Structure to design on (179 residues):
């Protein structure tokens, strides 16, 4: 590396860059997944969900840009290609096509579960090294948790249970929500 942020060693910067690159790829995949849902949602709650998803897409795209710029500020070269997404991917591709709002939202809730848990893992890895990077990830996680709350509000029953409780795959969640 030719430079990094003042006060960071090259070793620490590399660890931050590697963590941020994985999260960048995950964010790029998430915004594509959200747009896929936006295009493929149907049924009685179509317009509300269709309109709820676009602000999430835009914010997630902005988060990707923030992480890419942080990678560059640390002396790295951010990769925003589909090849980078595939290389970094530890998750399955979104598995629901044209389906109801409830089905997509239940599947999306599981996507958010995995995504937020991974972002929290990145917070744990970056915090001891760089509070600036940690702060960026914390802010993103808070907003993503709010979006997940929006999604879950559509899936809750009056006692607070989720229609897809106990499911472990997107397809299972989608099927449980449509029953």
């Amino acid at each position: 590396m030719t430079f990094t942020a003042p006060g960071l060693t090259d070793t620490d910067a590399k660890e931050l860059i590697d963590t941020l690159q994985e999260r960048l790829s995950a964010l790029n995949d998430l915004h594509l997944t959200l747009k896929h849902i936006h295009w493929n949602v149907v049924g009685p709650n179509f317009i509300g969900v269709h309109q709820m998803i676009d602000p999430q897409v835009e914010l997630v795209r902005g988060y990707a840009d923030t992480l890419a710029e942080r990678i560059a500020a640390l002396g790295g070269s951010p990769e925003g290609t589909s090849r980078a997404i595939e290389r970094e991917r530890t998750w399955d591709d979104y598995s629901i096509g044209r389906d109801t709002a409830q089905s997509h939202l239940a599947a999306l809730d599981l996507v958010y579960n995995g995504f937020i848990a991974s972002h929290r893992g990145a917070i744990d890895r970056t915090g001891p090294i760089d509070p600036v990077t940690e702060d960026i990830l914390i802010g993103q996680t808070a907003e993503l948790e709010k979006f997940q709350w929006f999604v879950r509000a559509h899936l809750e029953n009056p006692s607070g249970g989720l229609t897809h409780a106990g499911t472990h795959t997107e397809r299972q969640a989608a099927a449980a929500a449509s029953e």
User: Anything to note?
Assistant: The CA atoms of residues 54 and 86 lie 24 Å apart. The beta strands are 41-42, 99-100. The first helix runs from residue 10 to 40.
